[in-house]
Amino acid sequence: MELTRVSNMKIVERMAITLSIIGFLLKVSIITGANEILMIGLTCLGLVYLILSFALFNKIPVMGIFKRSSYSSTGFGRLYGAIGIGITLWITVTAILFKILNLTGANEMLIIGNTYLALVLFAALLIFFAKNNRMDSYYKNIFTKGIFVLTIGVALYFLPPYTLVKLFHRDNPKYIELWIKTCENPKDLQAWKEFEDYKNGKK
User: Fold this and answer.
1) DSSP character string of 147-168
2) CB hemisphere CA count around 43 (13 angstroms)
3) CA–CA distance from 53 to each of 66, 106, 153, 164, 173 (Å)?
4) Count H helices, E strands: the chain?
5) What's the CA gap between 95 and 42, in Å, rounded?
6) Residues 72-82: pLDDT tens digits?
C-alpha cells in the first residue's frame, strides 16, 4: 500500500515528462499544436519541482503532505535540500522551454539555471560524502534528476544559435532567413518589423 502511495506522488511528474516528450517530437515533426503541448508539459513539470519537490524527493504521499506523521522520519536538512533542488530544477526546466520555443531571455535563464543547479548538486555531493555515504532513494533521485536536467540545459546553451530554428522551421526557408537577419542585425528595427509581420501573417 505504501509503495502505491509513493508511486502516486510521481504520477504527475511522469505525465508531464511524457507530455513534454510528445510535444518535442511533434515539434520536430512540424505538427500543429506542438508548442502548446510542449508548453503544458514542461510548465507542469517545472511546477511539480517548484511546489512538490519536498514531498517528491522524500517519498511523502500526496494525502500525507498535511500530516505531521509523514515527516517523522524526515529531517529538516532533507526537506530544505529537496526544496533547493526543486527550485533550481524549476528554473532550468523553464529555461529549456524558453530555448526550445526560441523566446527572449532563454540563454540568460539557462546560465542562471545551470549554474545554480550545478552548485546545488555539488553541495548535495559534499553532504552525501560528509554525512551519509549511502546512496539511498533521496540522493539517487536528486543526482539522477539533477544531472539529467543539467545535461540538457548545458547542451542547449552550447548548441549553435541557428540549429533549433533551422530544425523546427525547415519547411519555411523565408522564416529562417528573416530570423537570422534579425539576429545578425539586432538593432535593425526594419528587419525586426519585417520578421514580426511575416510571423504574424503566417498565423
Assistant:
1) HHHHHHHHHHHHS-TTHHHHHH
2) 7
3) 14, 23, 19, 30, 42
4) 9, 0
5) 10
6) 777 888 888 99
Candidates 102, 85, 88; CA nearest to 38 is 102
Residue 99 one-letter amino acid: K
Cell of 54: 519536498
| Three-class SS state of 104 | coil
Q: What predicted TM-score, i.e. pTM, was given to this entire model? A: 0.87
Q: For residue 63, how far is the Cα from the chain centroid?
A: 26
Q: What angle do CA 35, 158, 185 make, to 5 degrees?
A: 75
DSSP conformation class of 171: T
142-178 pLDDT, tens digit per residue, is 999 999 999 999 999 999 878 999 999 999 999 889 8
What region does 54 belong to: left with phi over 0, alpha with psi -120 to 50, or beta? alpha
Contact 73, 95 (CB under 8 A): no
Closest CA to 74 of 84, 59, 63: 59
**What end-to-end distance do the CA atoms of the chain give, in Å?**
50
Query: Would you say 138 and 83 are in contact if contact means Cβ atoms under 8 Å apart?
Result: no
Cell numbers found for residue 92: 532550468
